[in-house]
Specification:
single chain; 331 residues; alpha/beta; Rossmann fold; 2 domains; 6-stranded parallel sheet; 4-stranded parallel sheet
């Protein structure tokens, strides 16, 4: 963050701090009481020194340290969630003591209301739509370095290779598409994670080595949206929102997502992309096939997705809402 902070005057300070967690959730119990109390005292000294007008916690866990200090010193406290939590976490993180809770999606807010009667405001995550935008022209270099044919129709997913992202579902669906469609198809999975070895074995078993690329960790996802993908997918079983869908839409890509959790809020169905039911693998294949076979539909959905991303998920919209919320709390 140093480069971004350097552009701000007066420059904000970054101070490293540990967040030892008191956790009692039935599956895992951690009670580092001494280190937790030390962290609270350290944070209290910092607050006394800086005398802030507001304390902002990015995620639920920092609330566990900040809430007692904010209450003691009567400083407004904001807790900004990024994804749903299990019921006990809402209580153990002391989020009930926050003056304002922010959620990234209606789904996350409704989940919190149901699990812990925790209300708050929905402020969609924002992206830089001046950076994530359709390219003036596609650079063939990016496909060439991956060994992907220039004329291939590429289905891509940007996500950790983890269970809830369900990359194996996308590989299986792609395998069926490759058999059904006469189009030159390619699948590109951008990311790394614990499922990587198993995915490579699955790709080999399905004899798709020449048609599936698994990139591993990449320094920047933008070139993949702009120069590699034709269709952007995210087939997760759960997401707080689904930033990868929004980034792809901002770059003019049609989306295919699971109709569940926060993902349902990242597309306008049949306008910016398609959604499919959680366990409907055939539905996923059909929606991908519709886009594979119709370049005009891809272009229309991509243009609509760009407009949707700019109007709903831009950093400017996000900043305005965050600033309004914090100003209200600070009086």
């Amino acid at each position: 963050m140093d480069e971004q902070l350097a552009a701000i005057e007066p420059r904000p300070e970054l101070l490293p701090m540990q967040f030892p967690e008191l956790k009692l959730d039935g599956r895992e119990t951690t009670l580092p009481v001494a280190s937790y109390l030390r962290a609270v005292r350290q944070f209290n000294r910092l607050v006394r020194q800086l005398n802030p007008a507001l304390i902002y916690c990015s995620g639920g866990l920092p609330c566990q340290i900040a809430a007692p200090v904010a209450r003691l010193r009567r400083i407004p406290l904001v807790c900004h969630f990024h994804h749903p939590a299990i019921t006990r976490d809402y209580y153990s993180w002391l989020v009930k003591w926050a003056d304002k809770v922010i959620f990234p999606s209606q789904f996350t807010r409704q989940h919190s209301l149901r699990k812990a009667r925790l209300a708050g405001d929905v402020i969609y995550n924002g992206i830089d739509v001046t950076r994530f935008q359709p390219p003036a022209r596609r650079e063939p270099y990016w496909r060439q370095r991956l060994g992907i044919a220039e004329n291939a129709i590429v289905i891509g997913q940007v996500a950790a290779l983890a269970g809830h992202k369900r990359p194996e579902l996308l590989v299986r669906a792609f395998s069926q598409l490759a058999r059904q469609s006469g189009q030159p198809l390619h699948l590109c999975l951008v990311g790394k994670g614990p499922l990587e070895d198993g995915l490579r074995a699955l790709v080999q078993a399905l004899q798709l080595q020449a048609r599936v690329t698994i990139t591993g960790l990449v320094p920047d996802v933008l070139p993949y949206y702009q120069h590699v993908f034709d269709i952007n997918a995210l087939v997760s079983s759960v997401e707080g929102l689904g930033i990868a869908v929004i980034e792809g839409s901002a770059c003019g890509l049609p989306a295919v997502v699971t109709d569940c959790t926060g993902l349902s809020e990242t597309v306008v169905p049949d306008t910016t992309g398609f959604s499919f039911a959680l366990d409907d693998e055939v539905g996923l294949e059909k929606r991908l096939l519709s886009l594979v076979n119709d370049p005009g539909l891809r272009a229309r959905m991509g243009a609509a997705g760009r407009e949707f991303a700019c109007n709903t998920f831009s950093a400017d919209v996000y900043n305005e809402k965050i600033i309004a919320t914090t100003r209200e709390l600070m009086g």
